[in-house]
Amino acid sequence: MEIRLVEDLLEANNRVAAKLRGLFSEKGILVLNLLSSPGAGKTTLIEKTLQRVQGSAKSAIVVGDVQTSRDKKRFEEAGLDAVQIITKGGCHLTATMVEKALASLDLDGLDILFIENVGNLVCPAGFELGEDMKVVLLSTTEGDDKPGKYPAAFFHAQAMVITKIDLLPWTNFDLGLAKRDARRIHPKLKIFEVSSLKGEGMEDWVNWILQRAEQKRGNRKSVHGRAL
Ligand code: MG
Ligand code: ZN
Q1: Ligand nearest to the CA of 35
Q2: Do 92 and 123 form a contact (C-beta atoms < 8 A)?
């Protein structure tokens, strides 16, 4: 009985996600859904990434938190367009929440949309939001065993960003082990090692996103005129 209920829930979510995916293709917007444990540095990574792409791409953020709109405030102080979703206890974002949030964003001319999911490595992995890809963050200040413990997040993500790489010398985080474990779960996983604050590794990461955004924009032409 319980299993059936979860399936229905996911199915309903997937229907809305498919609608969003159509909308994002039509508009040529690259959408990244960021997953991590609380405190891995999602907000800082997004902030620093979007400051670097300003000028080459127009971007916005949908940020999910259980409570408070502090992250939205942080983004706005950094000069970025953000919409906050407060889940009031909900431990993941759903496509319906994202759909509602999009009403307060101008999607025309938008190139990149970051969705900062609720800090949680478990259920956000199972909920599609119409994104092009999930990106999972793993910071050097948490356990290098996270990929093994939360395989779904690493399996469903296209990229893993190892954050706070500048702090590596002060931790017992085993970089090789974390990467090996993640690749065992997902052999084609793209891996970046960055320090959002110090700038280390940011160029590769930002260039990769810009490239993907350009591809998405390019594909829009072929989608145009076709019934979605
Ligand atoms: Mg945050
Ligand atoms: Zn959840």
Answers
A1: 1
A2: yes
Spacing, Cα 12 to ligand 1 middle (Å): 27
Are residues 121 and 135 in contact, defined by beta-carbon separation less than 8 angstroms? no
31's tokens: 């959408």
CA of 17 to the centre of ligand 1 (A): 22
Average pLDDT over residues 50-66: 95
**Strand stretches in 123-220, DSSP E:** 133-139, 157-163, 190-193
Q: Which ligand number lies closest to the CA of residue 41?
A: 1
CA distances 125 to 9, 60, 146, 218, Å, are 14, 22, 14, 28
pTM above 0.90, yes or no: yes
Listed in order, strand segments (DSSP E) in the chain are 30-35, 59-65, 81-86, 112-116, 133-139, 157-163, 190-193
